[in-house]
């Protein structure tokens, strides 16, 4: 029998390859090529424009870091905006917080949401929660034009190529700052420090031009380039390194997670020397 293998070329001379059991969806939307693959070793996998977006096997390392670090840094997150993240993994984690009253997900591509609802229910199950509204729009345009305000904004973006480049620019962060409530904060996935060291350092500088408190933290995602993955947080008031662990323990009680627990919160912010702030 012919074997099917999928490779994401992650650098010029290397990539990550996985054996495919079945192609559950393959198509082209207005915005991108979309594949949902059933694989032998990673479970179901969402691929956009030939890059791994999320896999059942390692998605918790990414989505829990992206959602719980900002939500537990904010003392009482009630209104949350998620930009991107059409697979639903981030929304699923946000909904675990009892304080959260509304989650708006702004995703440009309806087809991603439709197909993930169909094929990846372990990620997309949160979409049926009544606190969630899905808005199909360009995220950069939404944050510029909306009159709504949020406590926490989470940017679950793709790589900074093509139309996604604007999601990594100062103007975008200024617009997000403009829709934050007092004491609000934002976080964005900011790529691989191993493969894109200068990008990670530069994005920290861009955030610093907009937010008084800027912190970066890391997780591990086997299928992303370099496997070490960074996030950047911009905050108006609350510092993730000053959270009160006892307070977090109270809020965390009964929450089901794979990676996150209050005792690990500050440890996420330990950075290796090559990307650490000088001084
Ligand atoms: N968004 C970030 C994916 C970046 C992966 N890059 C790559 N494979 N080259 C993931 C969305 C998950 N909700």
Characterise the protein shown here.
By secondary structure, the chain is α/β, with parallel strands linked by helices. The chain has helices at residues 59-73, 89-94, 110-119, 121-124, 139-145, 170-178, 197-208, 245-252; strands at 4-11, 14-28, 33-39, 43-48, 51-55, 79-84, 102-107, 132-136, 150-156, 180-189, 213-220, 228-235. The chain has 2 domains: 4-55, Spermidine Synthase, Chain: A, domain 2, CATH 2.30.140.10; 59-276, Vaccinia Virus protein VP39 (Rossmann fold, 3-Layer(aba) Sandwich). The protein is 25% helix and 33% strand. Bound molecules: 1-{4-[(3-aminopropyl)amino]butyl}guanidine.
The CATH class of the largest domain is Alpha Beta
Q: Between the first and last Cα atoms, what is the distance in angstroms?
A: 58 Å
* Rounded Rg: 18 Å
Give the neighbour order of strands across the main sheet. 8-7-6-9-10-12-11
Largest sheet: 7 strands, mixed
Let me know the number of strands.
12
Output the number of helix runs: 8
CATH architecture label of the largest domain: 3-Layer(aba) Sandwich
Would you identify the CATH H-level superfamily of the largest domain?
A: Vaccinia Virus protein VP39
- Approximately what portion of the residues adopt beta-strand conformation? 25-35%
Structural class: alpha/beta
Shape: globular
Low-confidence parts lasting 5 or more residues at pLDDT below 50?
A: none
How many separate domains make up the residues?
A: 2
Ligands in the model, by name, code or SMILES, are:
1-{4-[(3-aminopropyl)amino]butyl}guanidine
Under CATH, the topology of the largest domain can be stated as Rossmann fold
What is the H/E string? EEEEEHEHEHHEHEHEHEEH
Mean pLDDT: 97
**Share of helix, binned:** 25-40%
């Amino acid at each position: 029998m012919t074997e099917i293998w999928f490779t994401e070329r992650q650098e010029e001379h290397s990539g990550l390859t996985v054996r495919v059991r079945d192609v559950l969806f393959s198509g082209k939307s207005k915005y991108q090529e979309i594949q949902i693959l059933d694989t032998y070793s990673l479970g179901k996998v969402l691929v956009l424009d030939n890059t791994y977006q999320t896999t059942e096997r390692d998605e918790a390392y990414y989505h829990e870091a992206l959602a719980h670090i900002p939500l537990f840094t904010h003392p009482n997150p009630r209104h949350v905006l998620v930009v991107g993240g059409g697979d639903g993994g981030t929304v699923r984690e946000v909904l675990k917080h009892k304080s959260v009253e509304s989650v708006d997900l702004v995703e440009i591509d309806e087809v991603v949401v439709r197909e993930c609802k169909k094929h990846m229910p372990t990620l997309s199950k949160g979409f049926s929660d009544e606190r969630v509204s899905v808005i199909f729009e360009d995220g950069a345009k939404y944050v510029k034009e909306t009159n709504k305000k949020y406590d926490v904004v989470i940017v679950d973006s793709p790589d900074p190529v093509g139309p996604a480049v604007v999601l990594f620019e100062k103007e975008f962060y200024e617009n997000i700052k403009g829709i934050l409530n007092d004491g609000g904060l934002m976080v964005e996935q900011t790529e691989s420090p191993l493969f894109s060291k200068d990008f990670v350092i530069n994005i920290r500088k861009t955030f610093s031009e907009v937010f008084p408190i800027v912190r970066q933290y890391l997780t591990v995602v086997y299928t992303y380039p370099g496997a070490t993955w960074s996030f950047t947080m911009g905050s108006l008031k609350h510092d993730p390194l000053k959270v009160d662990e006892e307070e977090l323990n109270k809020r965390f009680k009964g929450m089901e997670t794979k990676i996150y627990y209050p005792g690990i919160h500050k440890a996420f912010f330990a950075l290796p020397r090559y990307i650490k702030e000088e001084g």
